[in-house]
Every structure is written in C-alpha cells, then in structure tokens.
TrEMBL record:
The active site is at D292. GO terms for biological process: amino acid biosynthetic process; aromatic amino acid family biosynthetic process; chorismate biosynthetic process. GO terms for cellular component: cytoplasm. Pathway: Metabolic intermediate biosynthesis; chorismate biosynthesis; chorismate from D-erythrose 4-phosphate and phosphoenolpyruvate: step 6/7. Keywords: Amino-acid biosynthesis, Aromatic amino acid biosynthesis, Cytoplasm, Transferase. It is found in: Cytoplasm. It comes from Flagellimonas meridianipacifica. This is 3-phosphoshikimate 1-carboxyvinyltransferase.
Length: 409
C-alpha cells in the first residue's frame, strides 16, 4: 500500500486518540502469564508483534514464526529453552534471520540450554529443545541489545534457583531492563539491580492479579512530532497513560519542551500543547536509553528547520533495518544534509524540504510513522505503508481523525 500525504494548508490540529498498549509491556506480560497463568492483562497491544508473541507461546513443537518481532524472537528463545519437553524451530522474516542473537544463545547454553543454529551461526532460525535449567549464574555482554537481558530475566523466576546476571560492558537501553524488573516486582517477585549485577529470586506461583498495560509511548512520539510542527494553539490528547511510566520513551515529555510542546496529565489522558516556537536551533541528545525515538526526533528537526546531533545510536544498525543508513538515505532525498557514524547522526539545518518525495520504509514501521508528520510541511508519499502494523495498526486512521489528509494511491 502506497499512501499520499497531502500537506495541511493550515498547520493546526486538534483531536483525541486512544493509542494501543505498549508492545514492550505486552510481550513481557504475555510471557509472564504463560509462566504464571493467574495473571490477567488489560489493554494488550493490538500489534503484529503482540499477536505473534501470543501465538508463539502456545506452541509445543514444530516451527514458530515470529515475523519481524525482535522482542518475541528474544523472549521466546529464553522461554522455549527453559520449557522441558518443548521442541521448536524459532524463525522469522528474512531481516530477523540477520538480527544477531548469539549473546543470548551463549548465555542460555551456559545455563544448560540446548539450542542449535539452523543456518547461519549467531542468527535465527534456532532449533530449541527445552530443558530444565539448574545453573543460575551467567555473565553476558550488555552493549548489544537489552532484549537478551530481559529475555533471561523474564524466565528467571521460573528457574529452580533463580538467576544472577553479570552485565559486561556499557549497558544499553537500560529503561527496558528496568521495565522488566518492575513488572517482576509488581508480581511480588524479588529482584535486585546494583551496578552491573542483577538477581531474581525463584517463585513458584504469584497471586491473582490484573496488570494494566500502559499505552505505547513510542507510538505517542509521532504525535509529539506533529504537535511540534503545528502552529501555536494546536492540541492533541492521548490516552491511556500513567504518570509513573515504566517506558523509557516517556522521556518525550521532556525532550519535546525544546520543540515548543508542553505536556499535561489529567488522570490517564496526556495533553500535548504547542505553546511556543522551538527553543533551540541545534538539538543535541544521547538516545542510548531511548533508541526508538531517533527516527521521530531527526524528522522533527528537519520539519522545524533545525539541526541535530543524536548520539547513543549504536543499536540502530541491528533493528528492523539499519536505521542509521535508512535515515540518512530518506532525509537526504528530502534535501537534508546528514552525516552518520557507527553511533551517531548529525543533521544540518535546512529551510527547504523537497516536495513529493516517496519515502521508502525498509520493512520498518518506524520509518513510515516517523516521516508522516512532514505532511505538516509538504506533500509526500509513503511506500509500503502497511508496515505500521508491527506496533501500531491504527496509525493512519488515527492521523486522519486529527485532520491529516491521507489517500491511497
Ligand atoms: O525490550 C524491549 O521491549 C525493547 C528494547 C529495545 O531494544 P534494544 O535493547 O535492542 O535496544 C527497543 O529498541 C525495542 O523496540 C524494544
Ligand atoms: C526495535 C524495535 O523492535 P524489535 O527489536 O522488538 O523488533 C522497535 O519497535 O523499534
């Protein structure tokens, strides 16, 4: 599906949207519910990634295909490796077969798991024969993806002796690790995270409990970007959010004050108010705690005609696509000057944005969603726009409800 986004002649929006549940919280809670069936979950994500996780958890043997879902791939690897008697081949999209998983496989093997690479060493597909894991201590690199660490922590309470992890190197995407530990804590599982050591105590069962997934903050980022590019007075209400979020991407509230967007809370609704012009002409930020915001923020800066230098982006090359390369290519098509290296992106300010550019999305939901707000500045096309279903299937419909003009071409 190719979409044309027509430029909004008056850059003004006003509307309310209920955003689907966080896919990160959803996929953690689905796994925890498989271990502790008396957990109930509300506001589950309606995303593809949530669906493949839910379906994957039901398998006992045979092939489990998780398509593009990184969290499902990593979390299910830990799950099946520790489920005695289950025998699966865990596979995914062609991109998933390039996304590294050796750090997690090595750690699980160290704990006694039986896992083989079906094709290429270090990447899915994986043949997993579930085993009872008795060992409870392992060290693993922490600078590649936090998902390997969360995968181990999620199964930890079900292991006879719990788990002690030693994280080696600079820890990346830390809020996602803390989210995992907070969810365990909420279920009454005892954990500790001090320095580079994490431990989780074993737990046989948990009390009956309803866990309410907060709506997705990464999805909210596209509305922050729209609000930033609108004229003063524009307002977007989003629900259902929590003041004390477990999601690191809630840092948006702080970041977007630089772009003239103030956030206020009323119960579970957040209101984004465009109150002023942007406060900086060159935005600098380390996104190692919020890597999924890199695309949104660099496009916001292009739309506002300001430059930026974003660092901490070392995990971007192994996500749904090489996001640093994809960003450079697409921003350049729009007329921007962009430099990248292994962990950063620099955008020079430009006042002109090329019109009618077809944005390629590289099977990456965030490429489609991050560029959409540019419809506040120019006409543009988005190729393969259905990719948004990975995390936010209702994205295009929701944009229409706040007044954007979008047609299929
Ligand atoms: O644990 C999670 O839910 C996630 C962790 C992050 O990945 P990395 O730890 O690989 O950066 C993030 O980019 C991803 O979208 C979701
Ligand atoms: C990186 C992402 O997802 P995953 O790694 O779970 O595929 C994302 O949603 O931006």
């Amino acid at each position: 599906m190719k979409l044309k986004l027509n430029q909004l002649q008056d850059p003004f929006v006003n509307g309310s949207i209920r955003i689907t549940g966080s896919k990160s919280e959803t996929n953690r809670l689905l796994l925890l519910r498989a271990l502790f069936p008396n957990i109930q979950i509300e506001n589950l994500s309606n995303s593809d990634d949530g669906r493949v996780m839910q379906k994957g958890l039901l398998a006992i043997k045979g092939e489990v295909d998780i398509h593009h879902a990184g969290t499902a791939m990593r979390f299910l690897t830990g799950y099946f490796a520790s489920q005695e008697g289950k025998e699966v081949v865990l596979t995914g999209s062609s991109r998933m077969k390039e996304r590294p998983i050796q750090v997690l496989v090595d750690a699980l093997k160290e704990l006694g798991a039986e896992i083989e690479y079906v094709n290429k060493r270090g990447c899915p597909p994986l043949r997993i024969s579930g085993k009872k894991l008795i060992k409870n201590k392992v060290a693993l690199p922490a600078n590649v993806s936090s998902q390997y660490i969360s995968a181990l922590l999620l199964i930890a309470p079900s292991l006879e002796n719990g788990l002690e992890l030693e994280l080696v190197g600079k820890i990346t995407s830390v809020p996602y690790i803390k989210m995992t530990l907070s969810l365990l804590d909420e279920l009454g599982i005892s954990t500790s995270f001090e320095g580079n050591k994490i431990s989780v105590h074993p737990k046989k069962d948990v009390e009956t409990k309803t866990m309410v997934v907060e709506s997705d903050w990464s999805s909210a980022s596209y509305f922050y970007s729209i609000a930033a590019m609108c004229r003063v007075g524009s307002q977007i209400k989003l629900s259902a959010y929590k003041k004390n979020s477990l999601q690191g991407d809630s840092v948006l509230q702080e970041i977007y004050t630089q772009f003239g967007v103030e956030t206020s809370f009323s119960d579970t609704e957040v209101t984004l108010n465009k109150v002023s012009r942007h406060k900086t002409d060159f935005f600098e930020y380390d996104l190692s705690n919020a890597p999924d915001l890199a695309q949104t923020i660099s496009v916001t800066c292009l739309g506002l005609g300001i430059g930026c230098h974003l660092t901490g982006l070392h995990t971007l090359p192994i996500k749904e696509t090489d996001r640093l390369a994809a960003l450079q290519t697409e921003l350049t098509k729009l007329g921007a000057q962009v430099d990248i290296d292994a962990e950063s992106l620099t955008l020079r300010s430009t006042s002109v944005i090329n019109e009618g550019v077809p944005i390629d999305t590289y099977h990456d939901h965030r490429m489609a969603m991050a560029f959409a707000p540019l419809a506040l500045r120019t006409n543009l096309f988005v190729n393969d726009a259905g990719v948004v279903s990975k995390s936010y299937p209702d994205f295009w419909e929701d944009l229409k409800t706040i007044g954007l003009h979008i047609v299929e071409v």
